[in-house]
Design goal:
alpha+beta, 8-stranded mixed beta sheet, 3 helices, 24% helix
Length: 141
Amino acid sequence: MFNNIQVFVKGIVIDENNNHVVMLSDKEETKVLPIVIGPVEAMAILMNMQGITPNRPLTHNLLKNLLDLLGAEVEQIIITNIKDNVYYANLYIKHDKYTFEVDSRPSDAIAIALAYNAPIYMNLKLIEFTVNPSDLNVDRS
């Protein structure tokens, strides 16, 4: 974990281009990593943050249900990289004595991490893509 810092979901905002943006903040709330996500993923993240269970399972709920049935759980997620303005993440799924690393979109990984109350980490090399919270020009949703 030496190359990662723990972050939490500070919120979901709408930017000036009407994009949904998940805001990942460090513990001290001095830096925020904004990641543009889709509206469906934004809804899933917000529902998990608020403890709302939909009447019918969304994709993230379905995955959690399947992992639970298999006796597996999400141990952590790591936002690992950015390439061509696209962020990458990994889910770490524990089953028995094994931990499996699974490629994921950050938005999906975050929604699933919240469903499991699993820690969210960001690779330190992404620190250059963080912003000061006071520099953001967004509306909160």
